[in-house]
Structures are given as C-alpha cells and as structure tokens.
C-alpha cells in the first residue's frame, strides 16, 4: 500500500510540475518580451545612448573572438536590439519633415531602411544556426539501391561542354543497371544524337519548346521511369560520388522529395575575372550555397536550384512535374513540394562543378531572370498565403523573394546623402550627434555579426558591390512582374564562350557611371560648403561626406566590374595538383604532378633538373588511388620545370576515363570550398577601396580612349577631308 501511495504521490507531483511548467513558461516568455521591448523603446539622453552603444559593440567584438554557436546567437541578439532601437528612434523622433522636398527624400530613405532591416532580421533567422547535415550511409546491399534517371537538359551549349557532363554522369559510382543517362536536347542537333548513340546514353527530344527548361524536363519525365531523377545543367559536371553521398537520406526519410547540393564553379564569374579575385574573395553565390541553403535546411525549406539535385519521381509527378508558371521553375517546384507536406534537404558538399557566366551582360541577364521569377512567385504563389507551409518555411521563402527587391533601396542608399549636399533637404529631423549615436551601432554591430556568421562565404562590403552592379537592371523586371506576372520570358544563360579582346562595357556601366558622377559632384559641393559656408552644420556635413565617400568607393568598384578582361580559352583550366607520370618516346618515365587540367590538355610540374622538349610526343598517366589512365599527348609549351600538354586523338572511352580522373574527383572541389581567407571587415574595406580606385582609373582610361577614337573618326569623315583639302 505504501508503494502504491508513493507512486501516486510521485504521479501527482509530476502532474503538478507539468502544470507549473505550463503556467511558468508563458509567463517567462511574456516577461522576456516585455524586457526586450523596454530595451528597444526606452529613451536615453545622448551620453547614455553613446555608452549603451559602446557597451553593445564591445560585447559583440568580445563574442566574435569565440564565435561559438551560442556566441553567434548572442551577437544576433545584440544586433537585433541595436537595429530595432535605431528604427524605433527613427520612426518616432526623426520624421518631423517641414517641406515637400524633405518628405520626398526622407520617407524614401525610411522605406529603404525598413526594407533593409526586414531582410537583415530574416537573414539572421536563416543563417544563425545552419543545420550542417552530413551524408547518410546507404545499405551495404546494392540490390536495394533505387534506379536513377540522370537528366542533362541542353539548348544552345556546345557539344564539347555536353560531352564532359555526359562522361562524368555515366561514370557515377552506381550499379550500371540502375543508372540511365539522358541528354534532353531542345536544340535538336544531329551531332548530339550521333554522340549519344555512339557513347550509349539516351537522347530525348520533344515536339516543341514550350516552357523552356521546365517543359524539357517534364517531357523527359513521360519518357522515363526510374524511381529518382538526378538533374544537371549542361555545364555541371557531377562527381563519381554524387549519388552515394546524397541518396542515403531518401532511404532514411520516406517523406524526402528533393535533395540539393551546391553549385560550384571551376571558372571565374565576371566579378572574379574582371576584378582578379578568383578564389581570393568568395563569389556572389557562395553565401547562398555555403550558408543560406544550410540555414534553410534547418527549417525544411531547402530550395531546388535547377541542377546538382536529386528528386524523387512520385512526389514530383504528384505536383504535376517541374513548375511552369514562373521563370524560376526550380525554386517554385520546391515550394510546391513543401506545400504538399514533403521534405527537402541540403548537403553542403560540392558534388558537381560547372562553368560560371563569362561576361557581365550575361551575368546580369541571368540575375534578371532570377529576380523576375522570384517576383512572379511572390505575386502568384506567395509563401505567406495558402496551406501547407510552417512559419519557418514561409519566412525562408519570403526572404528569398524579398532579396530580389533590393534594386530601388540600393539606389536610394547610393544617392541619399546627395539630398542634403545638393538640395539641402533635411532627411533626418534630429541633431547630428544623436543620429550618429543611434545609427552607428546599428550599422557596426550588424556588420560585425554578419561578418562572423558569413565570414567563410562572404566578405564584408562585397554585397553592396554586387547589389550596386545589378540594382538598376533588376529593379524594372521585378516591379513589372509585381504588376503583371506574365511579363517577361525565359532566357538561357550562355556558357563556354570567349572574349577575344579586353574592352570596357559602356552599356552595362552607364548606371554606375551616373551614380559615381553624382556622388563625386556631391563630395565636391560638400567640401566647398565645409570650407566656405560659415552657416553650415559641420557635423551634418561630415556625416554626409563620409556616407558619400563610401558610396563613391562602392560605385567605383561597380564600374571596375564593367572592364571586361580578355578570355581566350573557351575551356577554362582547373588548377589542381594531382599525381601524374610522363612516359617519353624512348621509354623513360618521369614522376611529376599536374598544375592544371582541362578537357583538351594538362599542365605539369617537372622535378628539378628535368626538361622535355617542345613538340615531343608523350604518354600522360593520371592516377586516382590505384586507378591509372594513360593518354597520348604532345608538348606544346616547355619552360623550365613547367610543361603544357595537349591530348592527341583521344577516343570516346579515353575522354570518359579522363573525365573520371579529373573533373569527377570530389576532392578537387572540396579543397576550395569555404577554405579561403576568412573575412575581416577592415581588410575587406581596404580591398574594395583599392578596386574602387582601379575602377576610376579604368573609367578614365576608357573615356580617353573613346574620345581619341571619336576624334580619329571625325578627322577621317568626308566633311573633314574636304575641309582639309
């Protein structure tokens, strides 16, 4: 009886504790929310606000030194407090505008600031705690592994680009009776058909080109039957381990419908090429694939990105195939899958590599399509509305769409100080020092926090450069898509091209040149006022001059991107040190290693004291573990210990073997993934400033060359010839 009574007592105590928890937890949450609101809204005098700001910034810098997950969350909390405190003060104490000009510029800036704050807060939600999913092992019995159709859609890419992707896809380590590779040729080219037939892979064409890539993939779905589909863009070369790394999660989670891996590029994009920052500064996409997608995975909101992904056939067919309603069919497809209750996943391990866009105009065209498509989804299938999504998923999708609305806000930030310098508009109705006391901690703590979170995949201030380059071009299609989602069409991004001569892209650079010129004028006017206008507010002038100087740095760096660098290789070389051996015509062997490789050739480093003459025919052996491939080659370049070799008459089988030993190696891409120099804001500002100076020099040089060219053209015109005669 005593035992029973004790059990009853414990059960009663447990019930009482659960009831207490049920009551206490909401009370604690309410108390925390009240304290949070108090910290944000409590008014402070100037000196008190400065002390508060210094304490918060000092705490953030101290937490940055450890950068543990909990430290990062604490930094996020400090940043949110500083930013919300600034915005509360901004909305309640600085908007007493007196003239229509003040209202026009002032409210425009406030709206841009509200947009930036919203994106900042949602960004913290996405990136503060990435899931960091690891591969899940497959069963040892290969008989239970599923069948996979590999789709390689193509429209206007060259056969050489397609060949490499096909060779690598056919070489994926997967049971051969369960792997089927298909080229989906919307270009309907006979040479592609012949290649596919000779190499033994599928070739699918459709009767029309409706709905572009989405329609191409959907038609292929009707012609195939495997359990899963792996999709690669024509220029994305998969590694041998692609399916073994990713497929395990599908077998563990029956509700998993899509698994995405990063888009990794072995060639520089226009920013990296024109600014000479390849592999030294993370490119525009690395933040998304290195961190944002990993954060989305925590909320079960991973986006399908059109390539380098595995999709389960049954859920895809259940939603009607790849989405065709928008030009960003990939992200929209993932949204539809999530709405149906299916899971999506992300593995932050590069398992494919591809070609980046070559020219700035091509890069901008690609981003215009993305921006238009995301605006179309926002307009027609808004993630905040409709059934099937959890709150975290809604916010992740919403932030991805809001990101592409930065065009107008970015232009506002780039010109805002000119309102005061050129028109004397008072966009802040508050004392200058109070503006500094509230705005500076908001900016600095957010910068330090984002640098800590993003430092491996995005350097400080580069986001402003990217947005400044694209802002003018994406603003119009985004706004038009909000008015009429059917406006615009799908445009294919060209890859694998050449730029025979360096040139300055005046057409693309025109908006940045205008912004740069306006800021230079504003800087000059401000300096003159500072020196000669006795009635001007020195502190206000200095604030606007510093802001203008920063805008000059950013806009001049944007101008530098428009100076297209010569690119004579249609097939970029991949820099990698792989074990190799040369066999000379006399039978002598030389153990060496590669410096770089491409489909057509390889560069090697020779041992000390060894030389091979130009024109000599050799056999190149490449190794991967115990596997060896031997390829005939000719020496086309010989300089000290460096050789340049071109392969000679490789058969399709040899080309396939070459791809397996080079492009299909996951370790080649893993070395460069997130292992660059970690961001430090001051060093990044110095780098962007140096590039800005270079941009001004390039613009001056291009302007002089243009004037000289026009002068020569005028001097050779018929009228001038007759006048001189």
TrEMBL record:
<dbReference type="InterPro" id="IPR009875">
    <property type="entry name" value="PilZ_domain"/>
</dbReference>
<keyword id="KW-0472">Membrane</keyword>
<keyword id="KW-0812">Transmembrane</keyword>
<dbReference type="InterPro" id="IPR050321">
    <property type="entry name" value="Glycosyltr_2/OpgH_subfam"/>
</dbReference>
<keyword id="KW-0973">c-di-GMP</keyword>
<feature type="transmembrane region" description="Helical">
    <location>
        <begin position="46"/>
        <end position="63"/>
    </location>
</feature>
<feature type="transmembrane region" description="Helical">
    <location>
        <begin position="512"/>
        <end position="532"/>
    </location>
</feature>
<keyword id="KW-1133">Transmembrane helix</keyword>
<feature type="transmembrane region" description="Helical">
    <location>
        <begin position="538"/>
        <end position="563"/>
    </location>
</feature>
<keyword id="KW-0135">Cellulose biosynthesis</keyword>
<keyword id="KW-0808">Transferase</keyword>
<feature type="transmembrane region" description="Helical">
    <location>
        <begin position="104"/>
        <end position="125"/>
    </location>
</feature>
<comment type="similarity">
    <text>Belongs to the glycosyltransferase 2 family.</text>
</comment>
<feature type="transmembrane region" description="Helical">
    <location>
        <begin position="70"/>
        <end position="89"/>
    </location>
</feature>
<comment type="pathway">
    <text>Glycan metabolism; bacterial cellulose biosynthesis.</text>
</comment>
<comment type="function">
    <text>Catalytic subunit of cellulose synthase. It polymerizes uridine 5'-diphosphate glucose to cellulose.</text>
</comment>
<dbReference type="InterPro" id="IPR029044">
    <property type="entry name" value="Nucleotide-diphossugar_trans"/>
</dbReference>
<feature type="domain" description="Glycosyltransferase 2-like">
    <location>
        <begin position="150"/>
        <end position="320"/>
    </location>
</feature>
<keyword id="KW-0328">Glycosyltransferase</keyword>
<keyword id="KW-1003">Cell membrane</keyword>
<dbReference type="InterPro" id="IPR003919">
    <property type="entry name" value="Cell_synth_A"/>
</dbReference>
<keyword id="KW-0997">Cell inner membrane</keyword>
<feature type="domain" description="PilZ">
    <location>
        <begin position="567"/>
        <end position="663"/>
    </location>
</feature>
<dbReference type="Pfam" id="PF00535">
    <property type="entry name" value="Glycos_transf_2"/>
</dbReference>
<dbReference type="Pfam" id="PF07238">
    <property type="entry name" value="PilZ"/>
</dbReference>
<feature type="transmembrane region" description="Helical">
    <location>
        <begin position="397"/>
        <end position="422"/>
    </location>
</feature>
<dbReference type="GO" id="GO:0016760">
    <property type="term" value="F:cellulose synthase (UDP-forming) activity"/>
</dbReference>
<dbReference type="InterPro" id="IPR001173">
    <property type="entry name" value="Glyco_trans_2-like"/>
</dbReference>
<feature type="transmembrane region" description="Helical">
    <location>
        <begin position="20"/>
        <end position="40"/>
    </location>
</feature>
<protein>
    <recommendedName>
        <fullName>Cellulose synthase catalytic subunit [UDP-forming]</fullName>
        <ecNumber>2.4.1.12</ecNumber>
    </recommendedName>
</protein>
<feature type="transmembrane region" description="Helical">
    <location>
        <begin position="428"/>
        <end position="448"/>
    </location>
</feature>
